[in-house]
Amino acid sequence: MPEITKITTQKKSKHRFNIFLKENEQEYYGFSVNEDILIEYYLRKGQILTPEMIEQIQEKDESYKAYTLSVKYLSYRMRSEQELMDHLQRKEVDDTYIGEVITRLKREGLVDDLAFSEALVRTKMQTSTKGPLMIKKELAEKGIQASIMEQALSFYTFEKQFEKVEKLAKKKLQASSKKSHQQQIDSIKQSLMQKGFSFQVISEVLNNIELERDDDEEYHAIVFQGEKLVTKYQKKDSGYALKQKVKAALYRKGFASDLIDRFVNEHMSEH
């Protein structure tokens, strides 16, 4: 049976050791182990190892490597169980050890999909403009189960969504725009839905905030867009036909008929 003849420290890792063996007068490199495994099995020069012991030591070391890889990966930030599994697979860790190490990390509280999901929801609520539907998609991509997602997203209450949507909507409405008031409202709705807020909360916010049209700003916008339309259409049309085309286009852009008539009277009298 093999006998340990020499134990050396690896050059690239001071916590890993190379075990050299001798059998039938032949000395050879046997395997490497982590420092903790070395201590656990009390490996030393002159020790006789059975093939079963060597197999057991190597299996224990592979499991330990998977564990240390996982702990290092988790040290940067919280991870979902699926994220950790994917990481270990990329590192070519055997599936047997992946399952084993995840069970251990769950027991130690280092992998907890509910705690991970709750933390992610709270962080996104505080630091981003994402709504619950967008966050839910992100959780799904990280392999979180539907029941856990719903539990975590319960922190993002309707009141908190309303508050965030109201803030975003008011900010957009205050920004100068060359669009019609209606175009701005439609743009706000689309933007908020893309961020993952529901139609229900968006509608309730828009029904509650001040959405009065500023006639001066609206007229500046209609002049800006109307003159562009005149330039575009007058290449083919003039007179009544041109005016009708411009009026129809401005109406589609959400401008009110009284402002359209005013624009036509004040800016298209010569066409």
UniProtKB/TrEMBL annotation:
Role played: Modulates RecA activity.
PANTHER family: REGULATORY PROTEIN RECX FAMILY PROTEIN
Protein name, as recorded: Regulatory protein RecX
RecX third three-helical domain sequence ranges: 159-206, 216-264
Keyword presence, Cytoplasm: yes
Pfam families associated with the record: RecX_HTH1, RecX_HTH2, RecX_HTH3
UniProt keyword annotations, A-Z: Cytoplasm
Naturally occurring in which organism (per UniProt): Gracilibacillus salitolerans
Record domain RecX second three-helical: where: 112-153
GO cellular component terms listed in the entry, alphabetical order: cytoplasm
Any single GO BP term: regulation of DNA repair
Higher taxonomy: Bacteria, Bacillati, Bacillota, Bacilli, Bacillales
